[in-house]
Amino acid sequence: MSMPEPPFSEFYGAHFQRIALQLYAYLGDHAEAQDLAQEAFCRALEQWPRISRYADPAGWVRRVAWNLATSRLRRLRTALGFLARQREQHVDGPTPDRVALVAALGTLPATQRRALVLHHLGGLGVAEIAEQEGVAEGTVRSWLTRGRAKVKSQLTAEVRHV
To answer: For labeling, which of 48, 49, 89, 94 is most exposed (least CB within 10 Å)?
Structure first.
């Protein structure tokens, strides 16, 4: 006759805190340590009928948790190494012309704004925009004409005020 398996909740209550504290000492991040300990216990729960019969089920969970922590640190080191090798690029701020253009585009209805951006900045043709928006090509041409006229009047008014 085999021994009945102990309830998982008792096992969890008896061992979670100690394993989480060990991981915290290793990682230096309390929340991360708790997350990894929780993941290890979730994996144990999935296989609890088998793992509960081990001589040291807590040792199995601890090993899984430490493996998860080591993998996490390895990924973090790789990411930090990649970031350290990247060159910092300084990008100039927007020019006054660009600010004025963006402001003018912001006054347009969404359909006209999308059409202008897709056509002039995205390089899409009238037919491509019509297909994407699900409208006739004539509608796109109308949006472009009206949008250009409104942007032009906005920018012309801006120049007069300067």
So the answer is: 89
The number of CA neighbours under 13 Å toward the Cβ of 47 is: 13
pTM of the model: 0.51
Collapsing DSSP to helix, strand or coil, 107 comes out as coil
Q: Cα angle vertex 25, ends 24, 30, to 5°?
A: 25
Query: How is residue 29 written in tokens?
Result: 């991040």
Give residue-wise pLDDT tens across range 137-147: 999 999 999 99
pLDDT over 90 (residue 155): no
Looking at every residue in the chain, the average pLDDT score rounds to 89
Using the structure block, give the residue that is written with the tokens 């202008």.
116
Burial class from Cβ neighbours inside 10 Å (0-12, 13-18, 19+) for residue 111 reads middle
Q: Which of 123, 122, 117 has its CA nearest to residue 104?
A: 117
Please report, as a single letter, which amino acid is at residue 29: D
Residue 1 to residues 4, 13, 45, 68, 134, Cα–Cα distance (Å): 9, 27, 23, 36, 71
The answer to whether 39 and 68 have CB atoms below 8 angstroms apart is yes
Which amino acid, residue 145? T
